Amino acid sequence: MPPPQDVLEMEPEELAPFILRYLKTQPANSINRYNFSLPNDRQLNEQLGYPKYEEYRNRLMEAWMWLEREGFLAPRPGADDTWAFVTRKGQRVVEAENFDAYRQSSLFPTYLDPILTRNVKPLFARGDYDTAIFRALKEVEMRVRRKGKYTADDFGVDLMKKAFGPTGTLADNTTPKAERDRTRELFTGAIGKFKNPSSHREVKFDDPKEVIDIICFANQLLRMIDRSNL
Q1: Where are the domains of the chain?
Q2: What topology is assigned to 4-103 in CATH?
Q3: How many CA atoms lie within 13 A of 200 on its CB side?
Q4: Residue range 93-122: mean pLDDT, rounded
Q5: pLDDT in tens, 139-166
Q6: Measured between alpha carbons, how far apart are the two ends of the chain, in Å?
Q7: Alpha-carbon span 132 to 50, nearest angstrom
């Protein structure tokens, strides 16, 4: 476990992996929320004193409840709800030491286009951010091609210019020309900025929240394509 003073500052999802790893080492019939304590519990009580020790135990319980909510712990059948066991999901994540990937995947919105959820989320969860972004923008490109009835020879920025240009099949001629021009620039800019660079070189993204923002941007572009009147 982290030092007690660190525990007092940690969020439940940050502390939860330590508790789950500890519970994994305990006999299956000894995991109980009500009397949960750590081996050095008495020393911690003396070290922290009241009320810091109570705050410490509260942090542990917050993390325990997070583990239950996320499906890593579950009530043991046939017992009251204070008794628990480590679920198969919990076993897998401990064995793979893959909590960081899980926490990242939990950032992924649930309302995104089904294709993004199916094809992009696994890449994001593995931390393969540049590929996740590339795949999201590739879906934008492929959907423009399908919806606009273009061929495989039409791709990238040139495809966006053609599809949303003055005679493009996806251009909305019911809107002012300035709006149509900005829509074309929006799509060409997205493909040119986020898809094309990854096609030619390694692009590093370190912030999962930034990656989510870009994927959500791709999701909005997909909405616009699906709403186009063809």
Answers
A1: 4-103, 114-227
A2: Arc Repressor Mutant, subunit A (1.10.10)
A3: 8
A4: 79
A5: 999 999 999 999 999 999 999 999 999 9
A6: 59
A7: 48
